[in-house]
Amino acid sequence: MHPPGADTVLVRHGDLNTKSDTVKRYMVGILAENVEALLADRSIPGEVERRWNRPLVHTTEDAVADATDAVTDAFGVVSASPALTVGTEKATIVDALAEIARERYDGGTFAVDARRANKQVPYDSEELAREGGTAIWEAVEDEFEPEVDLDDPDVTFGVEVRDESAFVYLEKAPGPGGLPLGAQEPVVALVSGGIDSPVAAYEMMKRGSPIVPAYVDLGDYGGVDHVARAMDTVRTLSEYAPNFDMQVYEIPGGEAVDLLVAEMEQGRMLSLRRFFYRAAETLAERVDAHGIVTGESVGQKSSQTVQNLGVTSRVTDLPIHRPLLTSDKQDIVAQAREIGTYTQSTINAGCNRVTPDRVETNARLEPLLEHEPDDLLERAEEAARNAELVEP
Ligand SMILES: Nc1ncnc2c1ncn2[C@@H]1O[C@H](COP(=O)(O)OP(=O)(O)OP(=O)(O)O)[C@@H](O)[C@H]1O
């Protein structure tokens, strides 16, 4: 809900406040660019003003709700508020609060949350909140009995007084938090057609790392549905990052999978993971990325026991980031739904079909290497060199 006449979006960031002024200015610049790109991609009118340490979006009242949604999709944003802009005089702000109350407050409890970024004004936050609260009360008391609740109000009237203007708002829409995308170097994201890997990729994006998506084509064991699901999820992720290239590297892995199925029983799934990681490392060198991200989580599958993760991870020198390492499946599913990458489909494709009858849960490296095809890793490197870019 926004105040009548609201044509500005306040953008709040969190982790940037822990940075030095120089780093903060740089990162706020990236944040502003990303917000501009999100607005443009969704054809929402809006200009980003970077003058303050926290950016503002100037838009129209008709577009202010969509602009707020776009802002809260930007990584690094903690919350955003569609706000009415008024002068910084106390009487002006108090009048605005009364007017907004008449239009938007129709029952329940309320509170005023007033803050001053500009300490030069001749009143303090408490005084403003108190006088604003009285004005709100008087504005509605003929209609219903208002009630103040400072701890858990139904309606919060927010006021932020800055240098030249004050902003009045009724809503703090939550954003993802984290850091602006591009504040970190890129990583290769291994995305399968599953639920977990897109969520893991999103988590890295949330900490500022652009992703280079990579999908390993499993040949007959993958199938069109599997590829389509992976591409769909990358397309969804790219909507959070319209100013970043999110084409997918499709790594040909069909022959390697056939070989593993023909030659290996015990440890087959682990060697397949080693193939993935080595291919991802080679691709990372090719595209100048600095890590690998996967959707693995401890104990979720037999290949994801701590022993097996320990053994398979040793195939690369690059770090393998696993943001979901300690997450429960139901939380991952909930997050996938929230970010829009959840897929209802439970088709039996991909790694599930490569799984042998007896799975290894307690692997050791030496016996695994004895059984693994000698040229598996060379095949992985070659496959990554031959990977082609496809539009998701
Ligand atoms: N075909 C593939 N292409 C690229 N990466 C893959 C592929 N299959 C699996 N991965 C990567 O390896 C990780 C572990 O794979 P695993 O088979 O255990 O998971 P999954 O159920 O297929 O997929 P997800 O983890 O996304 O639900 C995945 O999280 C993903 O990062």
TrEMBL record:
Presence of the UniProt keyword Ribonucleoprotein in the record: no
Q: Which UniProt keywords apply?
A: ATP-binding, Cytoplasm, Nucleotide-binding, RNA-binding, Thiamine biosynthesis, Transferase, tRNA-binding
Please verify whether the record's keywords include Repeat: no
Give me the reactions it catalyses. Answer: [ThiI sulfur-carrier protein]-S-sulfanyl-L-cysteine + a uridine in tRNA + 2 reduced [2Fe-2S]-[ferredoxin] + ATP + H(+) = [ThiI sulfur-carrier protein]-L-cysteine + a 4-thiouridine in tRNA + 2 oxidized [2Fe-2S]-[ferredoxin] + AMP + diphosphate; [ThiS sulfur-carrier protein]-C-terminal Gly-Gly-AMP + S-sulfanyl-L-cysteinyl-[cysteine desulfurase] + AH2 = [ThiS sulfur-carrier protein]-C-terminal-Gly-aminoethanethioate + L-cysteinyl-[cysteine desulfurase] + A + AMP + 2 H(+)
The EC number(s) this enzyme carries? 2.8.1.4
What's this chain's function? Catalyzes the ATP-dependent transfer of a sulfur to tRNA to produce 4-thiouridine in position 8 of tRNAs, which functions as a near-UV photosensor. Also catalyzes the transfer of sulfur to the sulfur carrier protein ThiS, forming ThiS-thiocarboxylate. This is a step in the synthesis of thiazole, in the thiamine biosynthesis pathway. The sulfur is donated as persulfide by IscS.
Q: What is this protein called?
A: Probable tRNA sulfurtransferase
Q: Which gene encodes it?
A: thiI
